[in-house]
Amino acid sequence: MTTASTDFASVPQTWRRSHLLDLESLTTDELHLVLETAAQFKEATAGCARKISVLPGKTVCNLFFENSTRTRTSFSLAAKRLGAETVEFSATGSSVSKGETFIDTAKNIEAMNVDAIVIRHHTPGTPHLLAQNVHCGVINAGDGPHEHPTQGLLDILTIREHRGDLAGLTVALVGDIAHSRTARSNIWGLKKLGAHVIVCGPATLVARDWEKLGIEVAYSLDDILPRCDVLNLLRIQFERQTTRPFPSVREYALLYAMNRERISRAKKDILIMAPGPINRGVEITPEVADGPHSVILDQVTNGLAVRMAVLWLTIGNHV
Ligand code: CP
Question: Does the domain spanning 149-297 belong to CATH 3.40.50.1370?
Fold first, then answer.
């Protein structure tokens, strides 16, 4: 297995990517390297609280065409904790409203000597297109329903911290699988690390076809619950849907919300995760979101560790 550098003097030679576009194309060794590097950054920065200036003189631009709380803030903080400068771009208030194209916008930002662009966009494949058109590093912060690689990494890092090796663990992704970039990145990452993955939700949001990826498809949370080591509860993404996928939110919650009663029927040490934002009372009740099984805020802290690792690996110095 590839191990991370312990002193952060130079990026390991085994890492040759200047972009992180998805988890689908990452090798298992690369996946282990990012996770190990994130764990080491977390330790070296006292739980992501301190600075470690390994990217002095570098500039990271957050180019966000969609709203964000966690991803944007943590990429920005991660860059600052590594000693890099940051610049924030939002489509609202920019010259995009005057007709400037996406590529022209990105090239203009790159021309200001930016080392990495962190891109969130509603169109799948936008980060890949950007990587073909700029010379700086490109990191996918979520491209429509396609992938959200750093979310997948931070979810996996959180499971690893609480359970160790992922091989043999049963991890269920519950909810709006059809529109979830988090689901796709988790599936690629979890499968590479040997976990058994179940996708579970209403048939309108979970197609039987997902089985082709070598994962289990389930329509009853109550049936799979006793087997699960981890539940990752995904938000219903009404903003990406053209029709209502179920009769009412109340009915969805009745069948799929993680609540006190379901916790009592789950494994004693089940981990409850959610990528956020959470909708309390829809996919998770407040007593579960804030309860002893929940690692939702650990995920957020690990987001910083993972984003420090990804920024350093993609734009850090090579010997
Ligand atoms: N989990 C996640 O991507 O959250 P934000 O949309 O707030 O960044």
Answer: yes
User: How do 116-121 and 137-143 pair as beta strands?
Assistant: parallel
Q: Is 192 a catalytic residue?
A: no
Catalytic residue among 42, 81, 120, 192: 120
> Do the domains 19-147+300-315 and 149-297 sit in the same CATH topology, yes or no?
yes
Residues with Cβ within 6 A of ligand 1? Answer: 68-72, 142, 148, 151, 275-277
* Cβ proximity of 233 and 285 under 8 Å: no
Q: Which CATH class is domain 19-147+300-315?
A: alpha beta
Annotated active-site residue 70? The verdict is yes
Residue 98 bears catalytic tag: yes
| β-pair partners for 62 | 88, 118
Residue of 68, 76, 299 best suited for mutating to test ligand 1, as the one with most atoms within 8 Å of CB: 68
- Going by pLDDT thresholds of 50, 70 and 90, the confidence category of residue 6 is low
User: pTM score, two decimals?
Assistant: 0.95
pLDDT in tens, 234-272: 988 777 777 777 778 899 999 999 999 999 999 999 999
Residue 273, token pair as written in the block = 């995760």
